[in-house]
Amino acid sequence: DAGVIQSPRHEVTEMGQEVTLRCKPISGHDYLFWYRQTMMRGLELLIYFNNNVPIDDSGMPEDRFSAKMPNASFSTLKIQPSEPRDSAVYFCASSDSGRALYEQYFGPGTRLTVT
Amino acid sequence: SQQGEEDPQALSIQEGENATMNCSYKTSINNLQWYRQNSGRGLVHLILIRSNEREKHSGRLRVTLDTSKKSSSLLITASRAADTASYFCATGPTGANSKLTFGKGITLSVRP
Predict the structure, then answer these.
(1) Nearest residue of chain A to residue B38 (CA atoms)
(2) Is the Cβ–Cβ distance between B20 and B86 less than 8 Å?
(3) Which of A91, B1, B12, B97 is an S-S bond match for A35, by CB 3.0 to 4.6 Å?
(4) Which residues is B35 bridged to in the sheet?
(5) Can you tell me the distance from the alpha carbon of A47 to that of A32, in angstroms, rounded to the nearest whole number?
(6) How big is the A-B interface in CB pairs under 8 Å?
(7) B16 φ, ψ to 5°?
(8) Angstroms from A108 CA to nearest CA on chain B
(9) How many CB atoms lie within 10 A of CB A83?
(10) Percentage with pLDDT > 90 across chain B
């Protein structure tokens, strides 16, 4: 399996622009997680899905952030409008409740820079 | 707020030495996991220990869990330069919930 795939790997955008991050989880995994990592705050869970349904979005910082999972093999995290404080590395992770519910497999991350 | 707090924040050792990293947490857990992150990469799952287990081994890794003290330790024996990375503990809550809470991590440097 190719593992969790994220795109783009790097994104540089100007404040006020819309940013869309993409994730393809491991095939067969039924949980998908979006995290944000910064030096100041560490790794924060933003939202997670089970069988394409959002279960907990309490970590989403504000209404500028939205996430969707239209099918089992694709998810997006959108920031509109973006702000410099959104600069971070965004990770997507997936897990398989049938085999190892609690072990998460991370993608390589998207490094977002908002100028 | 952070559930897992790792200690020390940074550790530098010589190749061949053992590395011990600690994690403390606040609330009841179902499981505790350790992950490794190499620079510029995503996190990689290393080992999981359940709340009813006290010790677990995987290759050169040994994890202990003391639920009475709400603490865990990760021991890497005979360290190698390739072990240089950041290490995170993550706690899974009780109940049917796969959500994990990560600590801020420990930076381990292994000098060749």
Answers:
(1) A108
(2) no
(3) A91
(4) B45, B88
(5) 9
(6) 51
(7) 95, -20
(8) 4
(9) 13
(10) 76
Q: What is the pLDDT of residues B26-78, one digit of tens each?
A: 988 989 999 999 998 999 999 999 999 999 999 999 999 999 999 999 999 99
Cβ <8 Å between A43 and B102: yes
Q: What is the rounded CA–CA span in Å between residue B107 and residue A39?
A: 12
Which residues of A are less than 8 Å from B101 in CB distance? 45
Is residue A105 less than 8 Å (CB to CB) from chain B?
A: yes
pLDDT tens per residue, range A17-48:
999 999 999 999 999 999 999 988 899 999 99
Helix (H, G, I), strand (E, B) or coil at B67: coil
Q: Which two tokens stand for residue B14?
A: 């010589």
The tokens for B102 are 């990560």
| Cα B4–chain centre separation | 10
Contacts for A59 with CB less than 8 Å, ≥ 6 apart: A44, A45, A46, A47
Residue B52 is predicted with a pLDDT of: 94
Q: Is pLDDT of B2 > 60?
A: no
Q: Which of A35, A97, A107 sits opposite B98 (nearest CB)?
A: A97
Using alpha carbons only, give the angle A102, A2, A55 rounded to the nearest 5 degrees.
35
- Among the listed residues A114, A99, A115, A112, the one whose alpha carbon sits nearest the alpha carbon of residue A1: A99
| Residue A115 or residue B28, greater confidence | A115
